[in-house]
Amino acid sequence: MMQQTPFKILLFIFLLGNVLGTAAFAQDNNFHIYLCFGQSNMEGHGQFEPQDTITNSRFHVLAAVDCPELGRQYGKWSPARAPLTRCHTGLTPADYFGRTLIENLPENIEIGVINVSVGGCHIQLFDQDSTASYVAKAPEWMKSMLAAYDNNPYQRLVALAKIAQQKGVIKGILLHQGESNTGDREWPNKVKKVYENLLHDLHLKADEVPILAGELLSAEAGGKCASMNSIIETLPATVPTAHIISSADCEGISDGLHFSPTGYRKLGKNYAASMLKLLTEATK
């Protein structure tokens, strides 16, 4: 009997440690996390206005980089307000995606976003098999953006997502990318690979974490890459849990590539409308 006592004590301590450890990192099912990635339209090209900097206690951003002037520290939660991506980026669809969700969800639900995006990048940047070669050949104007993520945006997104999972539950992934892949009919397969890697690395299930892919600036709005939308629209055939977000009636600017602030707000609301529908269907 005397020999069993130390074992019982050690077993008790081990089990207690597991319980306390689980409690310390218990996920709050009412804190919904969304991962956002892509190129410049998701990064935020729109000039934000005072209305875009009003915070809400239920809408948060997990800082992807240090921004002392914004009071943000890498890997720490802050009130969400433009700019969401890096210190000097602009308005993104993620802004009004989050704002619209909190306006339409019960008051006990909080929203958190993580945005790791790089203007001008191809989807291949987020494919770990091609990241290193992509970074090595990146143009000079892109290098500072890549350096902000230690030259590996995908790994930065994953690292932040794991931090976020200690507090909340990842509910969806937002993608806006394609201008640099215009005409690339392999784009759906390339997106599928990145999506499946995220699911694997974060221990997520596809049927619980959909990917929402936004259309590019439409032809009606003067979009120079609008032809890519026909390819983007085929994504659900390759990724059954993908949902396409319309850019119809989303205003653009004269460069034919980016949305106006009004356009970003509309596009963000379109993302939110799709996610709200999915959340409603999940409760039936």
SSE topology:
Layout: H1 4-24, E1 31-38, H2 40-43, E2 59-62, E3 77-79, H3 93-104, E4 110-117, H4 131-136, H5 140-147, H6 153-165, E5 169-176, H7 187-201, E6 211-214, H8 229-232, H9 235-238, E7 242-245, H10 261-282
Parallel strand pairs: 1-4, 1-5, 2-4, 5-6, 6-7
Antiparallel strand pairs: 2-3
Helix pairs in contact: 3-10
How would you characterize this protein structure?
The protein has helices at 4-24, 40-43, 93-104, 131-136, 140-147, 153-165, 187-201, 229-232, 235-238, 261-282; strands spanning 31-38, 59-62, 77-79, 110-117, 169-176, 211-214, 242-245. The chain is of the alpha/beta class and 284 residues long. A 7-stranded mixed β-sheet has the order 3-2-4-1-5-6-7, with helices on both faces. Helix 7 (187-201) links the parallel strand 5 (169-176) and strand 6. The chain is globular.
Beta-strand content estimate: 5-15%
Order of helices and strands: HEHEEHEHHHEHEHHEH
Query: What kind of oligomer do you see?
Result: single chain
What ranges have pLDDT less than 50 throughout 5 or more consecutive residues? 1-24
How many strands appear in the DSSP assignment? 7
Structural class: alpha/beta
Please state the average pLDDT score.
92
Strand order of the largest sheet: 3-2-4-1-5-6-7
- What is the rounded distance between the termini? 55 Å
Which percent range fits the helix content? 25-40%
For the biggest sheet, the summary is:
7 strands, mixed
Please report the number of helical segments: 10
Query: Gyration radius, to the nearest Å?
Result: 20 Å
| Overall form | globular
